[in-house]
Automatic annotation (TrEMBL):
Cited PANTHER family: COMPLEMENT C2-RELATED, SUSHI DOMAIN-CONTAINING PROTEIN
Protein name: C3/C5 convertase
Annotated organism of origin: Oryzias javanicus (Javanese ricefish)
Range of residues in the leader sequence: 1-23
Gene3D superfamilies given in the database record: Complement Module, domain 1 (2.10.70.10), Trypsin-like serine proteases (2.40.10.10), von Willebrand factor, type A domain (3.40.50.410)
Length: 758
């Protein structure tokens, strides 16, 4: 009897520790008071347990546990310190100098509000009242009670939870901060007073394990920083002289992205991370720079999604990388986190680039974006690898950046249930490096965060930028997808509703037939729903194409002839570009060249060959519907298909001709028939467009149709016989250029048109 017990015990031990068979971690002691937990892989080895608490609370003492191969949880649940949800606490505000804080509390919990008062003779700057927020930060800004001392820099104050050394605020003097207790410092430890009267760096803040940056804070700080990396500010001398715009930096930009997926067991989690990267690279493409990308996912293994070498060998494009990202799947992935392996991959790729580019490598800039919880439990510390990378980029064996600090910017996004700040913070690099570290809450919507990194007002010369998704499902959300659409309402003797498109900040393009002879600018209303309600824009003037003449071919059997059916409407005031209102790209401009990623020397012809290259070319146009607009999908019939398509024009009412070309000149594109949508009455004048790498290019304009199928509007299918004819903008360039490209006037900023042929 005794032996058999012993045997079964031995067998048990063998099974559980021998590797082949895995035993489970135990459920005992895992429960959390006031919260709950999730497991990534049940009670099996490698499973990650993540605790969750309601808003304003955080899990304590552990945030996560891992089931180790010895079927012990790490950390082990402690009987004497049961797992619970603790109230989020903000750093102590009683560090205020020369003032009072009320109420005086031992601990300030999420939801508590404090007010500040300065001693007499001192003036209060910053917030007079602050509330402790659920992310462990105080609302508002640091409260400072100061007296004018005649120093160059203002009193920088003491942020909650911190201590400051240094009380001289004159040029060249510095102040040094540290955080009290268990808090750690994010931001600049040392700040120096500059001649400009400003302190260097970024005001420090004291963070605890449960302090997070909000999505908005990340968008603002990361956005302003990455904009600096991508662009330089240059003065421009267009009509608003002295204005500064962002233009692309010269040299080559290499962007390396590594995303830790050791915690993303769930498909959805992983897909959201992929979507965030796609959003980010789409946003970056909005700067009209064309970076090369290295994209990795990693756990203890590295999965290379985009290899930067493919960019150099012209085997990859932005579009192909996005596709690869979308299609990327991992089957059984390893657990563990090896940040060093990811950085080593960056290092290898960089070495290859240097080898290829030789002395041109000097002109290369490198941006690292690292998303991880930082628990590099495998592969050792990544710091030596980062040090070698710095030496390579700084071109200095000692790692002294010299003047090359801005050639390597490394951003670190702490992400995950348990962030290992001490390991992560040293991985930042670059100019104002203290702005490169972010702590993201577990369920931060990264795609949305990245979508907000462009201050849309700052970037001009970016036609066709738009969101690819509608966040709200209402008319405001729709406007972010079609920020160029406008409603043209004519209230003259013959009221008419048309669509139009913003083609610059001052001009709307629409159809000439929307107007009648007696219409005046005051009869024309341009309606732009800009997110704060519908706005009517006053019209200064409008011009129809000089060749437009409806009766021109009456005696050839065409009652109404719509060739040159285009008109430009000039607004009295330029619109303010925003995510809700910005121009679409039109053919043959320099901006469109950039949007299409064509080399600067490309011509109009090159654009046309790229945009209208197929015999059936997929295009879209809009119709008024609720909310705002709906999108209609059509195929332009080109090449041999065109003749068949335009033939149907002969069946149209009011046409008595044998040759369809009398009514449908070469200036028209033809759509309709099987599987196409058909234009309705109010769609006239609207853009016929195509999205190219998520910039929208207007190719044509809705003019007329062979049958009046829908006068009521809405999205309707074509019949086999009905066809629509759209004015091809490539054929209207002289007219567009004569107005939009006119640089002999002082009224508006002209668009830059490119050559027609080489
Ligand atoms: C601070 O917040 C805690 C938790 O919500 C609450 O119980 C307490 O009354 C608050 N104290 C003050 C002074 O508002
Ligand atoms: C812009 O124009 C102003 C006035 O015409 C001139 O003084 C200034 O130098 C110009 N700036 C640039 C960058 O060309
Ligand atoms: C890039 O710009 C810098 C400064 O703006 C300039 O010194 C350098 O010559 C430029 N390089 C190229 C290749 O244009
Ligand atoms: C339009 O064409 C007709 C027929 O050719 C011509 O008589 C008429 O003068 C033209 N109208 C304009 C405004 O050019
Ligand atoms: C159509 O044109 C032909 C010849 O040009 C003419 O004989 C016929 O009357 C016209 N029909 C109509 C309905 O205008
Ligand atoms: C090239 C590119 O960026 N394509 C994306 C544009 O947006 C749509 C969503 O509307 C994505 O599906 C494309 O992949």
């Amino acid at each position: 009897m005794k032996t058999s017990v012993l045997w079964s015990l031995l067998l048990f031990l063998l099974l559980c520790t021998g590797g082949e068979v895995e035993c489970d971690c135990r459920e005992d002691g895992l429960l959390i008071q006031g919260g709950e937990y999730t497991l990534t892989n049940g009670f099996q080895t490698g499973s990650l347990l993540v605790y969750q608490c309601p808003k304003n609370f955080y899990p304590y003492p552990a945030t996560v546990r891992v089931c180790n191969p010895n079927n012990q949880w790490n950390p082990v649940p402690k009987r004497f310190s049961p797992q619970r949800c603790k109230h989020v606490e903000c750093p102590d505000p009683n560090v205020l100098e020369n003032g009072n804080v009320s109420p005086p509390l031992a601990r300030y919990l999420a939801g508590n509000t404090t007010t500040f008062e300065c001693y007499s003779g001192y003036t209060l700057r910053g917030s007079a009242s602050r509330t402790c927020l659920s992310n462990g930060k105080w609302s508002g800004s640091t409260t400072i009670c100061s007296r004018d001392s005649g120093d160059t820099c203002p009193d920088p104050g003491v942020p909650p939870g911190a201590s400051r050394r240094g009380n001289s605020f004159d040029v060249g003097y510095d102040v040094t901060y540290s955080c009290n207790g268990n808090l750690f410092l994010v931001g600049s430890k040392v700040r120096v007073c500059q001649e400009s009267g400003q302190w260097t760096g970024r005001e420090p803040a004291c963070y605890s394990k449960f302090t997070y940056d909000t999505s908005q804070e990340v968008s603002e700080a990361f956005g302003s920083s990455i904009r600096e990396s991508l662009t330089t500010l240059q003065s421009t001398n267009d009509t608003q002289s002295g204005r500064k715009i962002r233009i692309s930096k010269n040299g080559t930009l290499n962007i390396y992205i590594a995303l830790d997926i050791s915690e993303s067991i769930e498909e959805e989690h992983f897909n959201r991370a992929k979507q965030a990267i796609i959003t980010l690279i789409n946003k970056i493409s909005g700067f009209s720079v064309s970076p090369n990308y290295e994209i990795l996912f990693f756990s203890s293994d590295v999965y290379e999604v985009a290899n930067i070498i493919d960019f150099y060998e012209k085997k990859a494009t932005l579009a192909s990388v996005i596709k690869d990202l979308e299609d990327f799947k991992i089957g059984d992935k390893s657990t563990g986190t090896d940040v060093n392996a990811a950085l080593k991959k960056f290092e290898d790729r960089m070495a290859w680039i240097e080898e290829q580019e030789k002395e041109k490598f000097r002109e290369h800039r490198h941006v690292f974006l690292l998303f991880t919880d930082g628990a590099y439990n495998m592969g050792g510390s990544p710091l030596p690898t980062l040090a070698r990378i710095k030496n390579r980029v700084y071109m200095s064996p000692t790692g002294d950046p010299g003047s090359r600090l801005d050639y390597l910017e490394s951003y670190v996004f702490g992400i995950g249930a348990d962030i290992f700040d001490d390991d992560l913070r040293p991985l930042t690099a670059g100019t104002e490096e203290e702005k490169h570290y972010f702590r993201l809450e577990k369920d931060t919507n990264l795609a949305e965060t990245f979508d907000n990194i462009i201050d849309e007002n700052e970037v001009i010369g970016l036609c066709g930028l738009h969101r690819t998704y509608d966040l709200t499902g209402d008319s405001v959300g729709k406007r972010t997808v079609y920020p160029w659409v406008v409603f043209v309402n004519i209230q003259g003797d013959s009221p008419k509703k048309c669509l139009g498109s913003l083609v610059s900040l001052e001009f709307v393009l629409t159809a000439a037939h929307c107007f009648i002879f007696s219409d005046e600018p005051k009869d024309v209303r341009i309606e732009i729903e800009d997110g704060k309600g519908s706005k009517d824009k006053k019209v200064k003037t409008f011009m129809l194409h000089p060749n437009y003449n409806v009766t021109a071919r009456e005696n050839q059997g065409v009652d109404e002839f719509y060739d040159y059916d285009v008109a430009l409407i000039q607004l009295q005031e330029a619109i303010e570009p925003s995510i809700h209102a910005r121009p679409i790209c039109i053919p043959c401009t320099q901006e469109t060249n950039d949007a299409l990623r064509l080399p600067p020397s490309s011509t109009c012809k090159d654009q046309e060959e790229l945009l209208l290259k197929n015999q059936r070319e997929r295009l879209s146009f809009l119709t008024r519907t609720h909310p705002l607009v709906g999108e209609k999908d059509v195929y332009a019939k080109l090449g041999d298909n065109r003749d068949l398509c335009i033939k149907k024009a002969l069946k149209a009412k009011g046409i008595n001709a044998t040759d369809p070309k009398i009514a449908v000149t070469d200036n028209f594109l033809c759509t309709g028939g099987d599987r196409d949508h058909i234009a309705c009455t109010g769609d006239s004048g609207g853009a016929v467009f195509k999205n190219y790498e998520n910039r929208t290019i207007q190719i044509a304009l809705v003019s007329w149709g062979s049958q009046e199928i829908c006068t009521g509007g809405g999205i309707r299918d074509s019949t086999p016989e009905s066809r629509d004819f759209h004015i091809n903008l490539f054929k209207m360039i002289p007219f567009l250029k004569s107005i939009l490209g006119n640089d002999a006037q002082d009224d508006y900023a002209p668009l830059k048109f490119i050559k027609t042929f080489h």
